[in-house]
Amino acid sequence: MSSRERILGRVRRALADVPPDDTPYEQVVRRDYLREHGERTVEQTVELLAENLADYRAVVHRCTEAELPSLVARLLADRKAGSVLVPSGLEAGWLAQADVSRVADRTESTPDDLDRVDSVVTACAVAIAETGTIVLDGGPDQGRRRISLVPDHHICVVRVPQQVVASVPQALERLAPARPLTWISGPSATSDIELDRVEGVHGPRTLEVLLVN
């Protein structure tokens, strides 16, 4: 018996005493929660995103589409990055001015291979203002989940306002649940029992978010 069959068997036994005419789950669980907290303009929603990203210790930059290549090049130069991971569908122009070695997102790359890369540049699927969260869904311009978890420096590009939503319910409407979703709220961090914060535990130590108009 496989693990799947064992789990499904337990579910069936747990539901054995539920009458066939019982109220469906979709009706039992109420879905009338707030879709967002308060009313904001588009500009205010973007400002809230920037504020909450910074509160999570992400470094926030703003630029236009035309300024994006030079900004990416400067951020990589400031880190003295010699190599950068590049998802297959990332817009080539974003790295046009960067003097770095480009590393492709390959299936055969090992964790050690990824750990030797200095930085990674990705796009995102959606950004949530109320929680300061960036969501990646493994799209061509975001790459495999692991490339945003192993390198120590992550540059993430968010197009505003089209990729920015106010709340988690609004974000979920844009996301496919079957895709490999990665929810990022600031750089990777944890705290011990004495609340000493340690960054870079299970992801990048530095997260830079570029809000591109």
UniProtKB/TrEMBL annotation:
Protein name: Lactate utilization protein B/C
Top-rank taxon, per record: Bacteria
Species for this entry: Streptomyces cellostaticus
SUPFAM superfamilies referenced in this protein's UniProt entry, alphabetically: NagB/RpiA/CoA transferase-like
LUD domain location: 47-212
